[in-house]
Amino acid sequence: MISKTYFSGFCLENEEELFSEYIIKNDFTVSGFSYGAIKAFEEVLSSKQRVDKLQLFSPAFFQEQDEKFKRMQLMFFKKDANAYCANFLENIAYPSNIDCSKYFVQGNYEQLDELINYEWSEDKLEQLERKGTKIEVFLGADDKICDSLKAKDFFAKYASVYYIKNVGHILNK
């Protein structure tokens, strides 16, 4: 059994409850939100333990963004991390009125750099398929963080993709 079954998003902790209507809790399911989806994916990929299902909630998907966008995100964070994080919390909650500040924990530049520049690999997704791990991807149609339509198109070949109308990054109304 993998020691950790849920991986938190950038600048967040204990937000797992936001996904309670979707999350499967058992010894053979691993899940993660946004940046945590990257961490969960890499953990399952490298694990020798049995994992039947990997649930990716609003996976951080920026590989379709140009280098200028990525540099600007990192520059804004470096210039004023507090303002960047306040804006980030507002954007992940949209269009809901959920206060995500109760889950906030200060992230760092290295984490943001990793998530902004992470490349989801089709080869790695195929590796997980060969291991017998089923992948579920949950995306909000009104996501202000990632381009959920491009993410949907990318993951559709390797996962069951749930594209949910009228919700954003945290998948809540």
UniProtKB/TrEMBL annotation:
Gene3D superfamilies to which the protein is assigned, alphabetical: alpha/beta hydrolase (3.40.50.1820)
Protein name, entry field: Pimelyl-ACP methyl ester esterase BioV
Superkingdom of the source species: Bacteria
Record organism: Poseidonibacter parvus
InterPro entries: AB_hydrolase_fold
